Amino acid sequence: IHVSQDSPLVLQSDRNVTVNARNHMGQLTGQLTVGADAVEAQCKRFEVRASDGGKVLFSADEDEIVIGADRLKVTGTEGAVFGHSVETPHIRAEPSQDLKLESPTRSLVMEAPRGVQVNAAAGDLKATCRKELHLQSTEGEIFLNADTIRLGNLPVGSFSSSSSSSSFSSSSSPSSSAPRQTIYELCACPNGKLYLSPAGAGSTCQSSSNICLWS
């Protein structure tokens, strides 16, 4: 069936339009059905190629679905939903858009046998959580490299040479004539909790500090 040049070919039916392909034995090998509700293709492999007939834009068979376009754009408000795993070498947000990885109800896990790198080349990197933030290295070390490292909101203990324990700074009220303390020592309790102690000629950290006992 063919038409003259620059003329359309129209196949019209009150029901479905079906195109069948059969082998030399008469067995059905491929079928394309255009219906009122859907277009269905039954074949071993379905392909959508570019206008020049070379590049495969979309292909589907029993084993996999391949999208060969330069960009896959999902415009749905809920984005793309994957029932199982997602495998990709690169995740990138659109220009001038933030990239957000979120698991609203469960945990978010990123694993790689050769390491996971998170880099903010031109901005800040911020990690926040509702409960506890754990940094753990099973075989190596945790290395903090920066011009300034700050530990905010650490409790401050007060040291007394006549006492075997130190307490919170709020429990002591130094006289107005006492010099203002500006240098502190960073102390670590046996359980790993950190606190500040007023620096002296020697170490003022004490394992029996109330800060360690009350943590």
Would you give an account of this structure?
One of its GO terms (cellular component) is sarcoglycan complex. It is a single-pass type II membrane protein. InterPro entries: Sarcoglycan, Sarcoglycan_gamma/delta/zeta. It comes from Notiomystis cincta. This is SGCZ protein. The protein has 215 residues and is an all-beta fold. The protein has a domain at 182-214. It is 2% helix and 20% strand. The chain is built from one helix and ten strands, in the order E-E-E-E-E-E-E-E-E-E-H. The protein has one helix at residues 210-214; strands at residues 17-22, 28-34, 39-42, 46-49, 56-60, 65-67, 157-158, 167-168, 184-188, 194-198. Strands 1-2-3 form a three-stranded antiparallel sheet, with no helix packed on it. A hairpin with a 5-residue loop joins strand 1 and strand 2. The longest helix is centred in the last third of the chain and has 5 residues, at 210-214. The radius of gyration is 34 Å and the shape is rod-shaped. Mean pLDDT is 84; it is low at 163-175.
